[in-house]
Records
---
Amino acid sequence: MLLRFNLIRLVTFGHYSDIPERNILMGYLLYMLVGFGLLMLPVSHVADVGWLDNLFTAASALSTTGLATVDVASTYSVFGQCVVLFLIQLGAVGYMTMSTYIIYRLTHHAMSFSSKVVSTSMAVPAGMELRDLVNSVIHFTFIFELAGFVAFFIALYNADIPLPGWNALFLSVSSFCTAGFSPFPDSLCMFSDNVLVNITVAVLSYAGAMGFIVITDLTHKVRDRAYMVSFTTKVILLITGIMTVGGTMILAFSPGVVPVSGSGHRMALSFFQTMSAMTTVGFNTIDLSALPVGPILVFSLIMFIGASPSGTGGGVKCTSVTAVWGFVLSKLGLRRRVTFLGRAIPFYRVDTALTAIIVYGTVIFLGCVIMSYSETFRLSQILFEATSAIGTVGLSTGITAELSDTGKWVLIAMMYIGRVGVITFGSALVIRARRNNANVVTADLAA
């Protein structure tokens, strides 16, 4: 018991609150600061880099966003890149999920504190014990990242890329965690014609974005034809398919966006960029700085929706969009019952989805307002950057490195909020305020 308590104290840096949302909030803030401190060490970089850029990199890595004000490959040493990779892995899996797994392995038990935080940060399927879920998530992550490493190593080795082992590991973790950090200065533009690299990124990104629950459902279905896939999995697959096909077609037929003449290559590049925005992995194989307003708005919408609730991706989540869509249709049809695809949606899920979309949109609006005063870029570029930040996507039209200090602070805050989740962030503040107000009222009554 004492060992478990000391381990919990260690991974939370001594912070404890009986409100799980606040533990998540403080946990990611503390780990972001630790990552920032490590990146500030002289051994972490091989080129001059400002402290705000180090903080930006730490926030981007821990939030698995991928936006960068400096080139990671040429700025940071191997040690610095290891720090970035560790933050990516920690941010994707969840610091409490990873620490709970370690505690399970060392003590074969977990404290209620860690259980509450993990249950708050991720959905626990019905009938599954928390311990089994944590073990499965870690094993699921390791298997996919190992398979990705092998595929990337083969591709990079055949392409005569220096340090194929390290670059393959970096790409595998970054792809599955939908982080978008690349060990190459042009993201993945140099691999736009490399089929193996493109397919591996897509498979890992879809697996990470859809998450353990969906992949487990599909695996059971392949093994047993009689197995009934959950309604949530069906919704995620449907919306994922619609966004993939729709975004690919819009981008492919938008003039001047994809600079190739062959229809097959054009479709392949359009698919990759749509997949990158939807899974929030944030890699690009074309130059996004020349995007016209139309595709920028389409990509912003895709990034706003984002991935599934059980995965490593960001956004308001596709299930939230379907819940709100069902709510709108029920109101237009003057029906009290909210349904989607013939299935009733509980009102608490509708309330959560509406809250998420409203808060999410409000944060984007406020971020754009502040940046419209501090930056000189077009509003469409600012909107794209802000949506990419809070959606933890990492795609950029090329303005990230040119942002003012104010703009960088705004994106740091948005990436942090996007990682902990707008509902978690808002709940932590509101619950605290409510309890503080209750204390004030109690004190007034006592006086």
---
Amino acid sequence: MKICVIGTGYVGLVAGTCLAEMGNEVICVDKDKNKLEKLAKGIVPIYEPGLEELINTNVPEGRLKFTDDLKMAVQNSAVCFIAVGTPQGDDGSADLSYVYNVASDVGKYMNGYKVIVDKSTVPVGTAQKVTEIIKSQTDIEFDVVSNPEFLKQGAAVDDFLKPDRVVIGSNSQRATEIMQELYSPFLRTGNPVIIMDVKSAEMTKYAANSFLAVKISYANEIANICEKVGADAEMVRIGMCSDKRIGSQFLFAGLGYGGSCFPKDVKAMIKTAQINGCSSSLLEAADTVNKEQRTLFINKILDRYNGDISGKTFAIWGLAFKPKTNDMREAPSITIINELLKRGAKIKAYDPKAFDLAETIFGDKIEYSKSAYDAIEDADAMLLLTEWNEFRRPNFDRIKNEMKHPVIFDGRNQYNGKRLTEKGFEYYCIGKNFPAPVNV
């Protein structure tokens, strides 16, 4: 099938590449010529396991092309995916200007029946507006479909190639059949294609992400109560997760959610509720808890130093909002580092993939270390902010010897606090307390 994907951001690039991997002819469109030139050479601007390899396979085979010529791409495609950004506006709503601009251009360039697919995360009613915009530009027949993505950063390629489900919001049998044919190679194991009306599909994406965000905030609130009453949040989590009705995912206490989806989608859902006169108390609470979680972690650090961290050196392990990505959008590290810098601390940071983005955010305000061990040299404390695999089993004897003081603030509850205190570390995490070792 001939396809164009408009927008080579995270969603568009993964979708276009994976569709090409299944034998489709895919044209990816973007306005950034420098980015397009790099992609054509196999230089990928985002880190996502497996993505670079697939691009470097499909470009030489001619199944995947990159261009800034939207007219050519639309006229040579049967299905056009809109995968441009929908950034958060000042009032919390999704900024749909990029989506609407693309819709207008698609309408101008249409030369035959097309299925226009909203792949971007958009609020209810967007497909209707996109339809109106395209109709204002052409008399040619077309259908607009909602096909929300459910990709987890760090596992996006696998998620697209082997999806749990594919949601297709369509009010047209013709468009539905085309979309079912397009996705059939990805669902040979029997996972479902769920067909629904367009508005329900638009709502499904926000509802799913918001639910997961609520679970994370709930886990953090329970962990904070555990810490105060002397319970162990990890044991409580295990006890809860054994209930099949609850499940084990997204119930880990930590620094809260980040990235490009959960924060933005929760706020967009709140805004949608407000516009339609509905209560969104639970979502508002989840958003508040998430923001407060970072403040609570910062306060742990300040309490340890009686409020004075001026001149202290903190080693930061992890800058990306989660492992297996270089994405720093809404990352807890940004809030935490900025607060430490404001109070006069020195930062030595290490992340396996996020340095380039970090430099655009912090510039020369922090020191960028060559390795995790380089960061902890002569540090007053280490802060674990992202749970990269390489941080899971470090050499704690080496860490203790190279740090100025053996103090760890674990924002991901990754380490065994009992063993670390036995080794002479001061260990702080979320949801439980450990006594300071007598030799510190």
